[in-house]
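agent> fetching stored inputs for the zinc ion docking request
agent> found them:
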Amino acid sequence: MFDWHQFQHDERSPAPAVNSRKRIRICGGLFLAVVLAIFARAVQLEVSYGAAYRNKASQPLEKEISVPGRRGRILARDGTVLAADRKILSLAVDYRWLEEPPDPQWLKRTARARLTPEERKNPGRVTEEQRRVLAERTAAQRRLAELAGMTPEEWKARAETIQNRVERIAERVNRSAQAEAVTPTGQDHGWQGWIQELSEPPPPPRIIIAEQRDCHVMVELADPPLVSAVREHPEQFPGAEIITQLRRVYPQKTLAANLLGHLGPATGEEAGFKDQDSPQDVYHPEDLLGRMGLEKQYESVLRPRRGVRVEISERGGRLLSAYYRHPPRDGRDLRLTLDARVQKTAEELLDEPHSFSSGAIVVMDPRTGALLAAASAPRFDPNLFVGENPAAAAVLNDPRRPLFDRVARMAVAPGSVFKIVTATALLESKTVDPEEPFFCNGYLDRPDRQRCDIFVRQGVGHGETTLADALCVSCNVYFFHHAPRLGCDRLLDWAERFGFGRPPDVDLPGQSAGIVPNPENIRRLERHDWTVGDTQALAVGQGSLTATPLQVAVLLAAVANGGKRVTPHLFPGLESEESATPVPGLHEETVARLREGLRRVVSDPAGTAHETVFMEDLAVSGKTGTAETAAGQPHAWFAGYAPADDPKVVIVIALEHGGEGGSAAGPMAKRLLLRLRKYGILE
Ligand SMILES: [Zn+2]
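agent> prediction call returned; pasting tokens
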């Protein structure tokens, strides 16, 4: 741009004085033009925006704070609190005291604030103070981690998670602010455009978002020593404070854990950042929402809505006033049909030392479908899933699958319990005369297959057997013999009418439909075409047939309530007259025959549950099931109702690889019924 040699040369050569003066004038003129342009812009800014900027500078600071509401509680029907938000104390640290590397503006400001006006004039002194702030920051963080029982690495990782989140939000906010601020002038690049540019306000400075001024939770549920250290010596922990938070607690620990489910953080699209237009519809990044069980199913009922609190303070920091732009709204409580005592009894029965490790117990009102207990074993403690807890990983990786709800999701072969469906099909299709006996010699055609249990154990058959006898002693051969004439279509039809093969619509997420094998799906299930043997296996609840304890409870309820299909539920909002609908085509006489057979299962000395369930003073009806499995012990079932003549409860006990239905599930049924009677539930 500037040729030095030329200049040198010019100096040496005798240059005319007029040239030099001319150059000075040109330079001076240019300089004046620049000064004028700057002055003009300053005047223009002052005239157009001066008042607005001055006004803004003199205005107090307004800060918006997102305030969480309280999530609705989950209660048992007697008021026992199963889940609730409780106040806890947590350690929160100012963002600037966590950020790595530290924000230079913040560092400078913090250091200068500690100095006298005299000291601030000395740059060396300011630098020295900045070093001191940083050293204090490091020391305070190390000490806080120590008090919280965290390693420096754990502390650092937590701080990084927070910083990443805040930076992501800041990036988004600034990107959208920039997009709004830039108003393209488009076609015009001439002097008109230049004038227009001049008349626009300067581009917006980078926005500091609220999260960068806020404190962030570093330790949830801080221990008392940490709380008192920070509260008593705030000067030792700059940037740190103890705050009150709401935290989900499950006071009954593992009680009904599989029904309650647990919460998890909002992720992806659920976790929008603060949206001023619709703050009610977006989850805050720190919000937790239902991820399993009732917490998930009734999220819309339980969910609280955040409020926005506005704090107005002087530039110096003194709080002037505060108000709610939107107050937070608490979620609604959910009072369940569940009876805490019955649930506890059922869980204790499952938890006793047994040969099996998993199973389920259902106690349901057969008139309405209201669940009094829906116990599953093994269980977990939902408290482990609140906050970041390494113990939660152990639950997730447990091979016994404690998170798996056995009540609504465990679909296994129901075995002889399914004979109730087969008996219904035989009666309704008039395939058999229920009074006409069939002679059981222990096996159908060959002594090595299609046998009765009694033949396997004692080498004898059941002899003369009517339909009620066949239910009472659980004679397989009776059903094997009649199944071919009944045909698979009619059997499948009744299975469908009772609700097998589809989810029972209980108000729990993730329920299983079970499997009903049929001529269409048998190739996929068993790699062969449908044969009469498949109809016979289905007739006794074997083969590829699977059902959940809840589906079996619906079947038993229909027998107990005189032929109606109920919808099992935990929230009484679903309870109405329509919730029990007649099973289509099921006649009263058929129900009466079934009830006679099921009563004899317990009352008749030959009945499969007589030995273990019979009580002189309490009439119980039911059916045992011993479902053979490919490997290991069979699944043990007892499904029944009581009192036999005026049923108040249906009970279903299903033990995975539990052994023989009568001897394994029967005694548990008896103890459960005795307890129900003690609680006054059978009256
Ligand atoms: Zn038999």
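agent> quick read of the result: Residues 358 and 377 are 5 Å apart (CA to CA).
agent> awaiting further instructions
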